[in-house]
Design brief:
mainly alpha; elongated
């Protein structure tokens, strides 16, 4: 018997109704999945980590991650399109920063989770 399957078919209506109250609607689920998908790439995770406490330009980030400016810019564009990072232009230099505190919190919670699981 597959442990993931119930041995009998019985719908717990009260639980289903309670879960319905917190169920994410399809458009929000798609946006959240896209954000998590963006964080599924190690380079983008490292970019997010570099931007945790400060804004940096593409040149800074490329040097830090030992990438070309083109590759760095490509990854940042993905993060920007998903509203995970924002830009600020100062003269001819474009600085990147995390879009808001929620991104920082999400990243730090994920990092805590993997560090917790690697200790046990």
């Amino acid at each position: 018997m597959d442990a993931a399957l119930c041995e009998v078919t019985f719908i717990h209506e009260d639980r289903v109704q309670a879960a319905q109250q917190t169920l994410v609607d399809p458009p929000a689920a798609a946006r959240l999945a896209a954000a998590f998908d963006a964080l599924a790439d190690p380079t983008r995770v490292r970019l997010i980590s570099a931007l945790i406490d400060q804004e940096l330009c593409v040149c800074d980030l490329a040097a830090l991650l030992n990438l070309t400016q083109s590759a760095t810019s490509h990854q940042l564009r993905i993060l920007r399109n998903l509203n995970l990072v924002r830009t600020r232009k100062e003269g001819r230099i474009v600085f990147y920063a995390l879009d808001d505190q929620h991104i920082r919190d999400l990243f730090q919670r994920g990092l805590e989770h993997i560090r917790h699981n690697s200790q046990g």
